[in-house]
Amino acid sequence: MLKRILFFAYGSVCYLIFLGTFLYAIGFIGNFGAPATLDGAPRGAFATAFAIDAGLLALFAVQHSVMARKWFKQQWTRIVPQPIERSTYVLFSSLALILLFWQWRPMGGAVWSVEDPVARVVLRVLFAFGFGLVLVSTFLINHFDLFGLRQVWLNLMGRPYRALSFGTPGPYRIVRHPLYVGWLFAFWMTPTMTLAHLLFSIATTGYILLAIKWEERDLTSDLGDAYEDYRRSVPMLVPFARRQASAGDSPRRSEQVT
């Protein structure tokens, strides 16, 4: 029983660290209310700042993807107990982001700067919409399972973990990856796009596209024709990009990369 209590406490702490990281990310990316932000006065030589920022983004991408893959989980759970595997993934992802926030180097320069007050408000609203869509999407696919709390809670109660049933709630009937759509809004909808912000947005967009490819390969392997039907009938990121058929109700599962 003591081990189960410790696992639950560990999972809860990992979740709280994630929650704090997520809230800080809003200010960091949106350039408000955070000690350090994505944009700002240049720090050091441009080449050095670029190399550091690119390295931080690469570190996060590698950690986030490798730890989400099946082959890694199979080896990792020989070391980390199964009930806290997801919480540990969440913790490592949060730490990678905290390191990025801490060591990020603004590079100055303005790719664009929107001065019209109405347009700035519109961009801010779209930015908020992006983060809102991310949060809503996680709850639609079971927020607490995605971030490891369900696993440690079931373990605490002495109940076996059962994978969630698959479905297409809400925006998942319009696009296959609304969570990623939300991130794209959050990354690109800014009144002022600096060079550092542009690097961040391009790198994270490229990572999202690769992550979708890897995730959908795993989904097809797990779900077979059911996911193939869903993939053919529902667009990936752009709503109404092609006609949806009844197969759009085919099962799917949550994003494994968050």
Q: How are helices and strands ordered from N to C?
A: HHHHEHHHHEHH
Beta strands, count: 2
Most strands sheet: 2 strands, antiparallel
The first-to-last residue Cα distance is 31 Å
Which strands sit side by side, in order, in the main sheet?
1-2
Helix coverage percent of residues?
55-70%
Mean pLDDT: 89
When the domains are counted, the total is 1
Shape verdict: globular
Based on secondary structure, the structural category is: mainly alpha
How large, in whole angstroms, is the Cα Rg?
Answer: 19 Å
Beta percentage is under 5%
Low-pLDDT parts are 243-258
Number of contiguous helices: 10
Polypeptide structure, described:
The chain has 258 residues and is mainly alpha-helical. The chain has one domain (2-249). Helices cover 62% and strands 3% of the residues. It is built from 10 helices and 2 strands; from the N terminus they run ααααβααααβαα. Helix 5 packs antiparallel against helix 8 (178-188). The two termini are 31 Å apart. The relative contact order is 0.15. Mean pLDDT is 89; it is low at 243-258.
Can you tag this structure with a few keywords?
258 residues; mainly alpha; two-stranded antiparallel sheet; 10 helices; 3% strand; disordered C terminus
